[in-house]
Task: inverse folding
């Protein structure tokens, strides 16, 4: 019974949820700004008939003014800020997912971090920051030294500039993992 009441409420509010609340509030504000002075002028000129005319006029003109302001606002912003809507590169879009990977890694949720970083690398296989994070995850979460070193080596080989930060990080971690591997192996006798 309770479920039926919730479904009925959702159906009743469904169309209202589809309307953008910002656009709705802008329309109401513009309507009020138009209607108030027109109402006074209309009542003063024609009484009740003038108020009704002011209402209809405000109702029709408000959306038109909103449309004009929206178009003017876009073109003005485009002119002032150097061209319309921003264009984000594939890497820029993936940086948000990279932050998700860092969050999961920090919380030691290595399975989720590995899943997200694999999804990133499927889209952009040469994203060195994602490759570095994958190497860290494989080492810290799964103690897979060989796989981790393989990804680090990939970064070291592709980033020839030794002064680049990601190259230094990869080289340092590669050296640390190599030292750890040497400590684990028993000496040959």
Result:
């Amino acid at each position: 019974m309770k479920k039926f009441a919730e479904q009925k409420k959702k159906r009743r509010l469904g169309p209202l949820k589809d309307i953008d609340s910002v656009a709705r509030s802008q329309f109401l504000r513009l309507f009020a700004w138009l209607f108030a002075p027109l109402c006074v002028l209309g009542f003063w000129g024609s009484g009740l008939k003038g108020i009704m005319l002011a209402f209809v006029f405000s109702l029709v003109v408000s959306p038109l003014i909103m449309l004009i302001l929206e178009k003017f606002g876009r073109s003005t912003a485009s002119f002032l800020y150097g061209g319309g809507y921003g264009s984000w590169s594939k890497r820029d879009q993936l940086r948000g997912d990279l932050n998700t990977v860092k969050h999961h890694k920090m919380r030691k949720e290595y399975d989720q971090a590995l899943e997200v970083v694999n999804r990133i690398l499927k889209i952009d296989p040469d994203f060195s920051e994602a490759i570095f994070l994958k190497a860290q995850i494989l080492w810290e979460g799964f103690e897979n030294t060989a796989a981790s070193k393989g990804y680090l080596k990939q970064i070291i080989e592709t980033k020839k500039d030794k002064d680049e930060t990601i190259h230094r990080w990869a080289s340092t971690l590669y050296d640390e993992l190599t030292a750890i591997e040497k400590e684990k192996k028993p000496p040959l006798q």
Observations:
- Residues 48-80 form the longest helix (33 residues).
- The chain has two domains: 2-80, 90-184.
- Residues 90-184 form a domain with the Serine Threonine Protein Phosphatase 5, Tetratricopeptide repeat fold (CATH 1.25.40.10).
- The CA atoms of residues 21 and 52 lie 27 Å apart.
